[in-house]
Structure formats: structure tokens, C-alpha cells
Amino acid sequence: MFRVILTALAVLTAAPAIAQVDIQEVTSPGGINAWLVEDHSLPFVALDIRFQGGTSLDAPDHRGATYLMTGLLEEGAGDMNNSEFAARSEALAAYFGFSAYRDSIAITAQMLTENRDQAVDLLHEALVNPRFDQTAIDRVRGQVLSIIDSNQHDPAELASAAFYAQAFGDHPYGSAEEGTPDSVNALTRDDLIAAHRGALARDRVSVGVSGDITPDELGVLLDRLLGDLPETGAPQPADAPYTLSGGTTVIDYPTPQSTALFGHEGIERDDPDFFAAYVLNQVLGGGNFRSRLMQEIRVDRGLTYGISTFLVLFDHGPMMMGQFSSSNDLVAQAVEVLRQQWADVAENGVAEEELEAAKTYLTGAYPLRFTGNENLAAILAGMQADHMPISYINTRNDRVNAVTQDDVRRVAARLMDPEGLRVVVVGQPEGLESTD
Amino acid sequence: MLRFALAACLAIVPMAPQAMAADVTQFTLDNGMQAVVIEDHRAPVVVHMVWYRVGAADEPPGRSGIAHFLEHLMFKATDTLDNGEFSQIVEANGGSDNAFTSWDYTAYFQRVASDRLGLMMEMEADRMRNLLLTDEDIATERSVILEERAQRTDSNAGALFTEQMRAALYLAHPYRIPIAGWRHEIETLDRPDVFNFYHHNYAPDNAILVVAGDVTPDEVRTLAEQYYGPLEPSGVGARVRPSEPPQIADRTVSYEDPRVSDPYVVRQYLAPERDPGDQRQAAALTLLSNILGSGPTAVLPRTLQVEEERSLYAAAGYNGTNLDDTVFTLYNVPVPGVSLDEAEADLDRVVAQFLEDGIDPERFERIKFQWRADMIYSQDDVSALARMYGTGLASGLTVEDIEAWPDIIDSITMEEVMQAANDLFTETHSVTGYLNAPGL
User: Fold this and answer.
1) Between A and B, how many residue pairs show a Cβ–Cβ distance under 8 A?
2) Domains detected in chain B
3) Average pLDDT of A166-176?
4) Residue B71 appears among annotated catalytic residues
């Protein structure tokens, strides 16, 4: 009888919760916008600030400048050297994060209410007045060179470097954002100052805030923190034509297990079929046990610990990709199953049952995202960077629910290209060779 | 400071989450199942966790990997649920679920809308006692865990090195075996092994329920009595494990692997863990690891990375939440041109200087203030709080110990930290490890 009770309960309770999040749009006296979830239950505030552009703003002969510059923002600012800056943030118990990505630079901050003004002043110095002391440049440059070297020994990094180089050639997407040893060694202090001037500007900023702050207080904070940044920055990069054909690339690397990265061109976020593609990806390899590829390759055959697919939403060159690892003697079989499934879904779409399970999961999970100041600030900044309206939160589940089996079949036929699927394998796979 | 590539591999947790006592409630069911409820009503979400007081250090000799193998098999069929149906029902309700295994515990969790808590308990109670464990599932899943070991360990020179270090550090205690298991032993695990391990250890009197989020203690108690209450206890006794003999020799481990790009040196000391009612020394060691090796103003990175520019990365690590003897670790990744012998000498020199100079009082105050601030920040992530309570309870602590921890940290003096440092560095035998590439 237990199964009957259980099943009944599962069906009865399947109506998902509604997102309970109240977002305020705040404009500072100086004209800077932010989205705020005001919540005074914990005495701190979380900020997430995104500057669109990121490492793809690098000039061709200065690859790595944005990455190194971002790493130096907290290595001395204003009248503080790096140790003084670190001691100051420790004394305030403020946590700052500075990260460079291909399409953005992300600054995160958590600040206590009791010393928020001082923490804002400190972060202001890092964003507006970084010192780029030569000793700090040389030290952090050494760390970057070490990261570049260690990427040469990391199968996943080797796979993505090979994939991106073939897919995007001379566009910044085609090369490592850390740069090469030669390009990083050639970077001067002036290059870093120029990268800073081009990347951190008010015309490309998105701000998400959650926690113990009122809209009026936030307005003052925004002007203090960002008001001294230049109005405009460097031009955004051009679109990146995708130049990779289908096939297999094998990169010899001495390790018992091969790492595979696969994919081809993807779909833009503003495409009318984006939601169908999003649901399609969830069915195919959206990261849970139920996905088609996980079922076929892990659960049924034990060929991998995990396989997933994802829509890569680069601003200037979207892709549909996935990855897995398999022992050298199993990887050829896993690739064969992958290619069969890719062709099957491209031709037949997905089963009604698979589609419904994916939609139920996506719509049920969505409201559960909106929790925690740090997490909420990131969501709010990300939505603005992706040009979504606040109302998106209330319509998003409807758009997922509106996706039909025909929509998925149509977008699968258009998007998924078995002939164009490139599989890059790093390792010593048995029975796999490069096709070109 | 850039996130140095190795930092992730070295598994340093500078600040563990801390708890505020106000919103935490505990009770115990008649069958011995312990329960903790952490309230956070900001969003209609709940995290439901069941922790078993059994892990990789409780495996029968020669059967390493069995605790982790069972963790995988818990997602297979029961008397009433099909293979994989557990996760399918969680997903159909918009939830996410997973599990993890350590030396001291195995834990299962779901994150769902708070009105689905009863369903999660119903399914979790079912698989606590009713797992089928078919031969076919066991054969396929054994292949999966071998792939997992290949991915996490065999493909990673640093992970292989860490495994060898641990086997050298613990002479007798089963902390010396890897959680994933040794490959040659995983390959032989079969149904009787798993079934016996499951049947003996997975029972309410060996389990801890942690529920965190938008729930009240009364709701949780009612549901727990309904779903977990009827389960029979198995009478599992206290955990008895081989203990360490006196360690009378320093040891060295040297591992070469062509996949190494940044050679480094590690020094590990066996160190006391947090014990019920006795946490001061662990608190002093926690602060010591912060003072020596956490953040750019800490002694090791400040001296070796910033002032002398002899290291790419230098750090210290200590995690006191452990059932038995734990580890205090020093790391040094030298800049190119500095050998591992020199890097080891650098560690020794900086530690000796620290023992002579003592602690910078200003930094000590900053660290204390940060700990108090972290009590606020840590409440932002109720899942992390739930995990912290589960780890503590499964490691032999009580709720009272966990709640006393922040005040104990706050009360530790500089003298206590220096005493702990002297005990550790001058009286403890250690293992020093060198990870290098051939020919470097």
C-alpha cells in the first residue's frame, strides 16, 4: 500500500510554490540603477556588480590584461598598499570578490550594517583608485603564469582550449583569458591602467543588492561606490563567427581516464525558441539523473560518473555543449552512445513523458532559487546583465510550461546537428582517433 | 589576491560556518533517532537531511569504498520505489537531492518547497530499511564508482599524493584509507558486503535528522514521528576503531607525477579534534591556522608570498570537526627556481620565527571580529548551517557543544594559541610530503 500513498502524495503536491520575492528598482540621485530585495532580518547587505565586457575586451596583443588587472584590484588602492588594504577589509569583516569572465567582470561584496559606510569607502578605492604597484604586478603576474602552466596539465582545460581555439580562431573567445606566457610577460603597468579604464565604466554596469538596506540608503551607496567611475568604457567586442566543423579531436595526454568536451553552435537568449531549447537541454543533459544522456551513459551502462550538457550563452557566440569523463577503454563506447542520442533527439525530439518531467522540475525548482542575500544579489545582477525585466520572474514559468513537444522537435531539428557535433577528447582513448 | 589554482585542490576551509543558538531546536524519537530543527522563515524552502553515524573509517578491513558505494546504491530500488524513482519524485516536486560520504558519516539531503517535507521523510524512511540491492544494480554502479575514482583521484596528481600522505600519517587508524576506497578493493565489492553494511548501520538509532528552513519544530516532530517513528532500531553500538599508537618517527612521502605543474611541499601533524565538553584546544588550533595561513595578512602568505616573494602560495589548514584525531597542515608552493628542500626550510624558518615573535595583537583582534561577523553571514545560507550541525553531531559533538563553539573561540587568548602552537610544532611527529614532476 505504501506505493499508492506515496504516488498520491507526489501528484497531489506537484503544484509548485510561487516565487515570493519583492524586487525594488532603485535609481540613485546620480542616476545609477540597481535592483534591491530589502530584507532586514540579518544585519548585513550583499552586493553583486557586473561590468559587461570582461576579458573579451583585451586588445589582440594584450591578451590577459583584463584578467591580471582584475586580480590586482585588491592588491593596493588609494593610500593603502596591498597589506594595508587586506588588513582594512579584515578589520571591517567585509568580504570582497573580484572575478574576470569572458563577458563580464563581477564584483561581490558582503558588508556589515554596523560599518557599511567604511566598507563602501574601501571598495570604492579598489574600484576607482587601484594602485597597480609594480611589486604587486610582478607577484600576481607570477601567480597567473603558474595558472597558465597548470592549465597545460589539466585535461578539462586542455579540452576547452582546443575547442575554443578551433571554434573562434582570432576572436578573444578563441584564446585563454589568462593570456599566454609571452603576452602576460609583456604586459606593462600602462596596459593594466588602460584595461581598468576600459572595463569598469558606468555604461555597462548591473547592480544587484539584497539585505539590510533601504532604497534611500542604497541610492547614496551607489553614488559613493560607482559615481567616480568613467561614464563610458571600451567598445564591446564584435560577434564571434563559429568556425568549427563536426568530427573528433584527440589530444594525447598520459592519464587513465579521458575527458571529453563536445558541442556545436548554440542559440541566443533572445531567440523566440530559446525556452524550447532550454527545456530540450534539460531533457538531454540538464545535470540530473533523469536526463537522457545520464540515463543512457551512466545509469544503464556505467560508462561515466557524470555527463551534462549546457547552453553556453556567450554574448557574441552562443554554443550548445557538454562534457564527461570515461576511462580510456570505455570512452569510445560512451562517445558512440552520445552520437546516437544526439542524432535520435535531432530527428525525433523527446518523449512526452521526458518533456513533462523536465517542465515539472524546472517550474518547481525556479521559486526555490530566491533565497539568501548573497544568492539573491547574484540573481538580480545577472537578470539585468541579461536584459530581463523584473516581470520576467512572474512570467518565466508560464513560458516554460508553454513549450510543447512540437516546439522541442522543431528546435531540436534546427539546433542539434549530429554532423556538426565536435567531440574533443583529452587522454589516451582506445579506439578513437582525430578525424582531421 | 587571485584564487590560486591549487587552493581548491588543497581543500582549505578558512572559516567554517557558525551558529546562533536562538532558532535551533532538538529532540529525540523513541527509537533513538536524533533530530535538529533550524528555523529560517525568509523563503518557503526547506532542507531535509539524514545523517548516518557511519563512514569510510567504519568499513570492514579489505572492504574500502563500501560506505561510499552504499551511498550510490541508496538511489536504487526499494520494496516500493523503482530504480531512480526517489530522485524522479524529488525532481517532479521541483527539488534537488544528493548525498555525500566522509570518514565519519554518510548523509542524504533534499532541498524542496517546505510543504513537501512529509513526502521527503516518507521516502527517506523507506530507503533506510527497505533497499533491495539487486546484483545487476551493484554491477553497474560499481563501474560508476570506479569511474568516479578515476575522475576525482586517478586523474589528479594532487589527489593521489594526498591519498599517499594520509596513508603515511595514520599508522593504524582507518582514516588512512581513502573515502572512495582503494581501486583493487572496490573492484571486489559484492552484494553480501553491501547488504551487511547497510543492514547493520542504516537504522533510526544510528541516524540524525536535520531539517532547516521554513518549518516549525512542532511540524517537524509530528512528521518525524509519523514517518521515522515506526522504524525499528538495530541496536548498533558505539563506534570502536583502531587507535593510533604513539608516533615516534617523522616520516617523508615523495611522489613524482608527470602531470604536476606546480611542485609543492606539505607538512602534516596529527592534531586533537573537538571533543564533547572539551573544545578549547581545537579552538586554539582553529585560530592558529587562521593566524598562520588564512588570508593575505596571515603569517605564511604575508612572509613568503608578499615580503620575500619566495612562494606562489603558502597556507595552513585545520578542521577540528572530526570523530578521532585530526590533521593540522602547512602548505608551501614555491615560486619557480626555489626547490622543495628550500621551500620546506622556508616553512620551518617562518614557523620558528612565529614561535619566537608571537601573535600580532591587532591581527588577533581582527580575526576575533571576523569570527563574530561570520556568525551573521553564516545565517544567510541555511543549507550550510544544516550541514554544520550534521557534521558536528555525526562527529560526536552535542548541540550544546556546537552552540558553545563561537563563544569558546571568542574566549581563547593569545597565550592559549601560542601554547597550542608549541605543543603542535615542537612535540608532534609529522609527515612531510613532496609532490614533484620527474626531472624537476
Assistant:
1) 223
2) 21-227 (3.30.830.10), 247-436 (3.30.830.10)
3) 96
4) yes
